[in-house]
Amino acid sequence: MKVAVLFGGISGEREVSLNSGKSVINALESKGHEVVAVDFHPERAEEILNLQVEAAVIALHGKFGEDGRVQALLEMAGIPYTGSGVLASALAMDKARSKIHFEKAGIRIARDVLVERGDDIEQKIKQWDSQFPCVVKPAQEGSSNGLTIAMDEQMLRQGIELAFQADDAVLIEQFIKGREVTVPVLGAKGQEKALPVIEIIPKNEFYDYESKYAIGGSEHICPAQFDEKTTQTLQEWAVLAHQVLGCAGYSRTDFLVPEEGAPVILETNTLPGMTSTSLFPDGARAVGIDYPELVETFIELAITRHESESASRKN
Q: Catalytic residue among 141, 208, 267, 296, which?
């Protein structure tokens, strides 16, 4: 097949996306596909509209990649693309609003306060009610960019200021001490299956940007060692999160597992990292799916969804 790979982009996760893109390109070429590599920039949107390919693999992360905008261009171009559609991509990218859907579905969330640009910050800090430590992060940016663990009100104010450098909305969130885990989900609509739970043990104190992407920055344990009930809950909630957001093809949902009580959902990633150190390929390997086969599965799911949606529109 002739396949476009969209990677790079202009978000704070550009470097990660470049690595994801290179890995995807190598996998596709190893399977004999013709690859059109596109280092995406929103000022060159016509590149997408003029692509002459059979499918597109989106290896972009963050804004202008994971948030529905590139997906909208591919929809207009009539090109099947990997991952979720426009609405699900935009919704999953918005941590504050996706949590509303998670909570309604019965998935446990952490308490939060949303601060949007133009809000009365003093009033929002008062609303938070001095519960420390807390997590301060951009509401629509990924990969721990602009994240602060605030131990007091001064750090909270500094964290809000830092997060506003990356986004127009900031989430103040309850800090929950627990084991970091993630659960990949794969499959067509109505047939989604959770892959094994993966525990992430960061070398740094917190699972920050370096822990995620530096070689040796964290240890991945797959499958994670939990009791049967906890494992089942994590896998069921990952599939449920995927479904309530309307995700398609694949996703990866992050959780914290405290010493006591149910797991707490953090977010759902519609375009999880696909580098050599990434988590989704780890989960796939654990069930016998190697990296090139995984990328081909993404493309097959994309084409099947595209054909189904095209047929529905004609009817």
A: 267
